[in-house]
Structures are given as structure tokens and as C-alpha cells.
Amino acid sequence: MHIETARRRQGVKVYTYHLLHQKTCPLARFGYNRDKKRGKKQFRVGLLTNDEACPVAVEAFRGDVGDPETLRAQIARVRTPFGIECVVFVGDRGMIVKARLSDLEAVGFGWITALRAPETQKLRDEGFFQPGLFDRRDLAEIADPDRPGERLVVRYNPLVAEARRQKREALLSATERELAKIEARVRRRRRKPMTADEIGVAVGKLLGRWKMGKHFRLTIRDGHFAFQRDPASIAREAELDGFYMLHTNVSADRMDPVQVQRTYQSLHQIEQNFRAMKSALDLRPVYHRLEDRVRAHTFLCMLALYVRWHMERALRPLLEEDPRQSFEGLMMQLETLQRHTAEVAGQEVTILGEPEPLHRRIFQLLGVPLAARRGAPLNPLEMRSSWALTPDRRPGTSA
């Protein structure tokens, strides 16, 4: 979501994801799982961030709650007396559906989403935009008389177009190989030929796997199966490769087409936040059974994400110097800087690792002092090179 307040301009986005969970928790339900893990109960998480992807709030939902329903909860949540003047929700095609658009407009909120492929194809067929004109420009705004008070922004990305072309060709080739196997099986069945129904079941299972059936012409009858590509269907879909249509009710004086497109594209930052929460921050699996503990666990993970976000911003100069470097890589580098405490001849000895220049730079950017000895923090810029044994804990000396 994108929010403007009387004090400053900020944004909030909401996104949900499915996570594995204990079966006895009240939040645990069977539902659609994006990880394709069937037969497992789950719960869902809604995350609010500002326009820079900094976490603001988090909420746990039952596992059988759909994306549109979680959006309704966030509509009520942001309607609090914080001086908010304008709210613009940004969501993908599955989150902001027509039913939720009316809910947003009823409370005066704006929205930005994307049209589904059939809707984009319909606009192309009706002549509202011509894909061939986008060889010189990649962004344009069009109007549809059937959508009064709404704006349509067409975006073309040649890199996405090439990626989709390659993916479609790979899926078509894989489908052809499997269809050829079915064709060979039908030819081998001479003593008891396969019926048309048997062939149809086998073909249907295959086409449902890669969703390429619309690009093939099939001939099925008892004891016979043949197939071939449909060039017209493939060319029709390929014409829209790299195109996506953004749909918004935000006025042009508040957001121009470039701002609409950038705001929608910023949704990928939410994906990055969830990847960090699920992996590095151990959001899942969850071993708690009580609902309040699950919610507390989710909240603590959001707090950890908040700390990580600020650390990434502080370390941005270091990451920009070396594009191959990552935040995770820097954290792994810090693992080599260790502190060990041992007891030798009745005396406690503290051994500190020698910090490398990269360690010093990391702590300097974070504004965190390195401790030269227990209880004696030392500014990284003033550190000495003698980091073996702390002087007051050497064997044979008193503390």
C-alpha cells in the first residue's frame, strides 16, 4: 500500500505467504500452498512495510484465509487516527480482486494492481493499444471507456519478453516429448486399442502439468492419437510477451505513469523480506502450539527483519563498492571474528580474534564499537593491533 500523510509521504504494502505449522494450533488450516506442499496445515502472514520496504506491522491469519480476505483486515487496520490523508493499496492480480476494489473505494482509498492476461488480450484485440508501437518506447497510458475514472498504464520490458519466449519454447518442447510418448503407446496397443476416453485422460493429465494445451491441435479417437503445434495460437500469445497492464484509480496529478509503474514494481521488495524471514530469520517451521505464542513468534521475526533492514541500509556503501557482495556474505565474514574464554591454571583467559579490515569497516558503518576487553568498549577507529590475549587476563596475572 502507498500512503501519504500530513507529515510525510510513506508507503505500506501487504503480502501474505503460507507457512508450515503445528497441526493443533487454532491458526493451522489446510489451504492453497505456494510451496506445493500438500497435506500439511499452515498459517498465513500479512506484512506491512513503508515505501522503502521497512517493516511496520505484521499479522498472522488462519491458513484457509484467502489473499482478498487478508486485504480487508488491513483496510480496517490502516484506518486509524494517524493523520493519514491518502492511502493507495498496491497488490498483485490475486490480492486485489474486484470485490476488494469496491471495499477500497468505499472508504476513499486508492489502489494499483495489474490486469490478468485475458483482459490485456481483450484490450489489444479491441485496438486500445498496438504492441508493435512499443519498439521505440516502453511505457504508455491508455484510456478505456468501459473503465470510467480509472487509468491503464502499459509497460513493455524486452528482457521479460525474451525470458517468456524461452520459457514457452522449453515448455512446448517438453510437452511435445511427452505427447510423443502417448502417441507411441497408442500405436503399440494393437491387440486391445486404447479408447478415446483412455487417451483423453492420459493427455489431460499431461497438458494440465505445463498448461500448454492451448498451443496444440489434438486428434483423438479410438485407437488413434495425433498432435501438432498451433502456430496461430503461439504467435497470438507471443505478441504480448513482455507486456503487462497496470490498473489504478489514482489521479494523474498525484502519480504519473512512471510513478505508477515504479510503485507496482516495488512489490518485489516484499518478496525479498519474506525470503529473509523464512530462511535467515527462521520464521518457519513453527513449533509452538498456542495461538498467542505463534503470534509472538511472528512478531519477533518481524522485529528481526526490522533490525536487518536498518543494517542493510547502513552497509549499503560497502555493498555498492562490490556488486558481488551481499548482506548474507558480510554476515558470514563476521563469523570469523570470535571471542573465546577459557580457564588456564585457575585463571580465566579471554582470546579475541584479530579483526580484518573488512570487519572494522562493517562495525564502523554500523556504528557498533568493538570490545578490546570485557567491559572496555573500543571505537573501531582507535583499535590497536594487539588482539591476542587481553592484558588483564594473561596467565599468571591478577584481574
From TrEMBL:
The Transposase IS4-like domain, residue ranges: 29-305
Coiled-coil spans in chain: 165-192
A Pfam family: DDE_Tnp_1
Family matches, as InterPro entries: IS1634_transpos, RNaseH-like_sf, Transposase_11
Domain of life: Bacteria
Keywords: Coiled coil
Listed PANTHER family: PTHR34614, TRANSPOSASE IS4-LIKE DOMAIN-CONTAINING PROTEIN
Name listed for the protein in its UniProt record: IS1634 family transposase
Protein source organism: Geochorda subterranea
